[in-house]
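Quick one: structure for this chain?
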Amino acid sequence: MTRIDTPPDREQLAYEYHTEGRSKGLQNIAEVDQVLVATIRAEVAETLSARGIEHLALPDREALTDELVARALEAHAHRCLANADDPLTLDQEAAIAAAVRAELFGLGRLEPLLADSSITDIHVVGCDQVILDIADGSKAEVEPVVGSDDELIDLIRIIGRNEGIAERRFDFAHPQLNQQLRDGSRLFAVAWVTRRPHLFIRRHRLIDVTLSDLVRLGTLSEPLADFLVSAVKARRNILVAGGMGAGKTTLLRALLAEAAPEERIVTVETDYELALDRFPERHPDLIALEAREANVEGAGMITCADLVRWAMRMAASRIAVGEVLGSEVIPMLNAMNSGAAGSMCTVHANSSADALGKLALLAIQAPEHLEIPHTYALAAQALDLVVFMATDARGRRLIQSVREVTGSDGSQMITNEIWALGSDERAARTAVSLTEAMRVACANVGYREDLR
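Got it. Here's what it folds into:
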């Protein structure tokens, strides 16, 4: 692993922290006095704690913090003059203020790493190791972003308190934090079950994405994209399957981008990740729902299964479940059977054929304890297509198989693999014909298979 002192293009990076449409900070991170940042941060944090600001809304807390930081910088300037030292420049003061603000309300010294588009994943191990995954497939190690393990835990707690729609705890009783950041990245942190606290950030580089974009990236061929566009417009129910990091969420975003703007889409996720609500011009009638953990008294838990049922009461045109992990599988299949045609979800699986078996295993573990034949009968009525994604040896995320679900027979699903692994490791059209129902549905929205 190569160790580098600065990430790529570090000279262009600035301390920036965005809140309510505002942006602050103009200084290169290497020029920020981290000792001064830590001193002012501790002073401001102590004052905030003494004033008991927990009841204040986040914008009010931030405004008060700005005032306290300004006072601290003014006091520092007076000390410099009294000691005949050179005072900070305006740019340096702006950088210090942005750094303090980022550590109290944002991501501290992680901010410049998130500003670097070449970084795909960030792994922080305690206070002394930061490992980056770079877009070209390489890895790099950069300077620490915190001064101690306790400081890393404090940073994670700040993120849990400020980044989501509700505060998420991170302590001995809640040793993991799963949180979407404001730029759409996914953060996961864990402590007290490991020797050192760990923080992982997975960057979503393709948030605003369409199937045409994925064609240009080589994820799928243009003929397959045309078919999938028609399947979405024809309101076919789609299950996206694949391994971890295969690109399932990105594909789900791209598929939903083909839905008509007038449709009401309800997304259901354990943690916000799809981020469709960032594009109101594309999805003006969208409701994004996120599951909720129980509070300290053990009350208030809202599961994805609950949210899928709620979505049906919202007259959803389509329901999209970010990832089917458990008890939501049966409500999801029921929703697909009960008017929410064109719904979609993802599931972890090793092949397009295994995906349906994975749903059956989840259904057995659900509170309903649905047996495999009953699950397959329900899935056969609910699902139309299974799209499988995988990562090849070169790290490319590719669609490698598409199956049409045609029915079930006891403990077996009946499917046709209409696109299978081709010579270029992407899905290629097989000789298997579409069913008449699929052919007619797609033809009604303009798709002509005989032209492919």
